[in-house]
Structure formats: structure tokens, C-alpha cells
Amino acid sequence: MQIERITSRKSPVVRDAASLLQKAEKRSEAGLFMAEGARLCADAAGSGTKIAACFFTENAQKKYGAYLNAVLKTAERTYCIEEHIAPLLSDTKNPQGIFCVCRMPARTADGLPVGAEPDNPGSRRMLVLENVQDPSNMGNVLRTAEALGVQHLALVGACCDLYAPKVLRGSMGAVFRLGVRQFSDATSCLSVLNGEKITSLAAVPDSAATPITAIPFETGSWAVWIGNEGNGLTAQAISGCHDRVTIPMRGRAESFNASTAAAIVLWEMMRGAGEGEKKHG
After folding, report:
1. What b-and-e string marks burial along 171-207, b requiring 16 or more CB atoms within 10 Å of the CB?
2. Which residues pair with 223 in a beta bridge?
3. Is 40 left (phi over 0), alpha (psi -120 to 50) or beta?
4. What domains lie within the chain, and their CATH numbers?
5. 196 CA to centre of own chain
6. Degrees to nearest 5, angle at CA 261 with 186 and 269
7. Is there a contact between 129 and 223 (Cβ–Cβ < 8 Å)?
């Protein structure tokens, strides 16, 4: 393994890598994104994500050697950088000194990274996010979905970039493994889900809607839609779904934020799925 040393902040290699932190268009055009931090970089490598380049400082090598070695085994190119260069590659205040330029994973028709084990298409549980624009919310939702065993998500409309630095950190590596499909609008997404015989439910803050706890998640395939942090779901999405559902609330707050609503919905979906498995087990 050949390790090149970089001592200048003006290095074209460093500047090209740093540009991936700024704009989703740049990441999409290059088919690359930046992962930062010892654990996240090791998680990317361990999940089968291809590492185009790894940058690390000598201090990071001493402190996070076990994580770094896992990355270096698969990295196409490796660079040891001076400490003063690390902030250029970082989106955090206190960088750990390990950074990876990763190739966006190839995905199957249902959004799963190629090589991932598919779930049972006859009893799918999935979450649909429409116009969710806060990267922290997006990252939290991805992390929660993976933790609870929901394998599939769909992003509709103007959602934030899946590979934005804050999304990657918040997801704790879930973005490397989950099935994610992206749609330009609600109509195109609903057309696909209807074709797959998935029942779509629009989550709304309306006490007149069906309580999420009353949905029979133990059988069939379901997709619950969560809307934008400030505006909720579009009228197009709500009218196109099979039913409206709501999270029962007893306090004075009018609604949950997107990531909290998603966490409750995901828990309820998978709790129901678990009950179904007990009945048929």
C-alpha cells in the first residue's frame, strides 16, 4: 500500500475532496461524497462502500489505528496529511483527522445497495419523506429506521441530500445500508407504490384522522408518509394516499417535528409487524 504525503493546503487533491462537502450538485455530478470521522469511515468500508481516497493525519493514525486500518485495506488511494490541512476536509469544529472520499453505492430497482439482502416484498414496511429539508432530521430518521428494522425509505420532492455531511453523521452509517429511492413528486412515488401493492398512509396532525395505533400493521405492506418540518405533507400526497393517520396527542403541542414523528411511526409499524410474526410463528 503506497501512502502519499501532502503538506500543502493548496494541493489539488485536497481541494477536490473538500469541494464535495459544499454542494449536492457537485457530489451527484462526481458520484462521490465525503465521510468524516474514524467510526463513520470504518463503517463505510465495512458496509461495502468503495473508498476512492482516504486522508489521515499522523495523530489520527496513532489514536484511531484500528478504525483506520480497516479503511486502508480497501482504499484505492491513501494520503497522510499535515494537521493544518485537516480543517479543509472537515465539516466539524474538532476533526478527528480521518476522511474518506466514497463512491456512491450502486442501487437496485428498489433502492437497496447492490449486494444487500432484500426483505419479504409481500410484507414490506417503509417510510416516505416528502420535502424533509433538515439534514439532522434526515440523519436521525435513517438511524432510527435501521435500528428498528425498516429497510426501505423513499425521498419525495425537495428533500435534503442523502450524502450531506450532517445526514451522514446523524445516520451513524445507516445510509450505507438502507434501501432508498428518490422521486420528483408525490404522484410518481404513489404510482410506484400502488403498483407494488403497498398501502400508503398520510401522517397528519389532525385528531379526526385514523390513530396510527389502529392500523393493522401485522399483515400486508405499508408506507407511512411524513411531511416537511414546517408545512407537513402536500395536498397532492394526502389526497393520493389511501388513508390519513395521526399520532394521538394528549398535551398542548400541536404537532411533532419530522424526526420525532417518524420515530413514533416506525416503532408502531415494527411493533405491529412483530405481533404479526408472533401470531404466525
Report:
1. bbbbbbbbbbbebeebeebbeebeeeebbbbbbbeee
2. 126, 200
3. alpha
4. 3-103 (3.30.1330.30), 121-280 (3.40.1280.10)
5. 22
6. 80
7. no
Rounded Cα gap, residues 128 and 240, in angstroms: 13
pLDDT tens, 79-128? 999 999 999 999 988 899 999 999 998 888 878 887 666 666 667 899 99
Q: What are the cell numbers at 231?
A: 408545512
- Torsion angles phi and psi, residue 60, rounded to 5: -65, -40
Contact 240, 157 (CB under 8 A): no
* Cβ atoms of 237 and 225 closer than 8 Å: yes
Assigned C-alpha cell, 163: 450524502
Which residues in 63-158 belong to E strands, given as ranges?
78-81, 98-103, 125-130, 152-156
Rounded CA-CA distance 104/28 in Å is: 9
- The Cα–Cα gap between 268 and 172 comes to 22
pTM of the predicted structure, to 2 decimals: 0.89
- The H or E element containing residue 63 is helix 58-63
Identify whether the C-beta of residue 241 lies closer than 8 Å to the C-beta of residue 201. yes
Q: For residues 246 and 130, is the Cβ–Cβ distance under 8 A? A: no
- Residues linked to residue 225 through DSSP beta bridges, in sequence order: 128, 202
CB 136 within 8 A of CB 206: no
Contact 201, 209 (CB under 8 A): no
